[in-house]
Every structure is written in C-alpha cells, then in structure tokens.
Design a protein that fits this description.
The protein is an alpha+beta fold. It contains 6 helices and 11 strands. It is globular and about 45 Å long. The protein starts with 13 loop residues before the first strand and ends with a strand. Keywords: Aminoacyl-tRNA synthetase, Ligase.
Length: 185
C-alpha cells in the first residue's frame, strides 16, 4: 500500500518507518506502536506550502483527500479538556455543538496556537492526531474514518503523512463522531 497512493500528486512517499527523520518525537513514538504503520507513508514538502490549499495546489493532491487536525479546548469551570479533531479540508468542525457536547464543556474553541504547540510537541500548521497526548480523545468525522487514502499533517510543516482512514482509527482514543459539516461554497 505504501508505494501506491492515488492522492500523492507529485509527492515522493516513503514508508514512514524508514523516514522517521521527517516527523517529530511524539509522532515517531506513536508510529512505532501503531498497528498498520506499515501502511503509512511520509513525504517531504516545502514548509512554506504546508497550508492545505497551497499544498494541494502545488503538489496536485486533491483537496477532498486532505484531512485537517484541529485542537479544541473545552472548558467547564476551571477544567479544560482537549481533543484532536479530524475533518476533511472541505468541511468545518462543529466546535460549539457536537465537539463541545462530547467534551462535556460549557464553552469550546480552537486551542490558542502557543497552547496547541506546547501541549502536542508539534509545529502549528502541521499538527496531526498521531502522537497527541494519550488522555485526549481523537474525534474523527465519518468521512475521514472511511477514506481509503488521506493526506494529514506530520507534526512538522516540512512533511505530510499519507494514511488510510482505517489505520487512523487504530490510534488510541480514536472515535468516530459526526462532527463536521460541508463548507459553504
């Protein structure tokens, strides 16, 4: 599977376990324990093109095969609960509805950039659910879970991970939740 990616465009995918130099330490640790990691690839990219739209346009990877990971912070009183949420790039996460309720929070919002970076050990714009803190739920939209191939962040801006949705669902704490809606055109 690693060698055949229909969504790769002009990327040069490598088996991820052979190129752990392209991911940060928390992602490396998680990949070493991930059932199905042999079906995951990584590709170096120009870090200035890490944002989804620019990445897809430059590398010829379809937007509908890109999944974004957003870190959501839910607050109830003084307690803050975090979640990594995976939605297709063509969709928007329902932070104040479904995700807020799942976190049992009164208020939910995207975690501030410096907080998300500090808590994950990853670069902003490259955050991936692979390697997030173990106590975080990984909330995955059904579209992402069912995708045969996805491009996701690698934890840094200078590479991307290619992964089947079913392998993503093997991450500890991963659960399918109808948490997204299609972006208005």
């Amino acid at each position: 599977m690693v060698g055949v990616w229909t969504i790769a465009g002009s990327l040069e995918p490598f088996p991820v376990l052979s190129r752990l130099d392209l991911v940060p330490a928390p992602v490396e640790a998680a990949l070493k324990n991930l059932d199905g990691a042999d079906r995951v690839a990584v590709s170096p990219i120009d870090a200035s093109l890490a944002d989804t739209a620019e990445f897809c346009a430059h590398y010829g990877s379809p937007l509908e095969a890109s999944a974004n990971c957003v870190v959501v912070a839910g607050k109830r009183g003084s307690e803050i609960r975090y979640a990594a949420c995976m939605v297709l790039a063509t969709m928007r996460a329902d932070v104040n509805g479904v995700i807020r309720k799942r976190l049992n929070a009164r208020k939910a919002s995207f975690a501030p950039m410096d907080e998300a970076v500090a808590l994950t050990g990853m670069e902003y714009g490259g955050i991936t659910p692979i390697g997030v803190p173990a106590d975080w739920p990984i909330l995955v939209s059904p579209e992402v879970a069912a995708a045969p191939e996805l491009v996701v962040g690698s934890g840094i801006r200078a590479s991307k991970i290619l992964i089947p949705g079913d392998v993503l669902m093997k991450l500890p704490g991963a659960e399918v939740l109808d948490l997204a809606r299609v972006l208005d055109q």
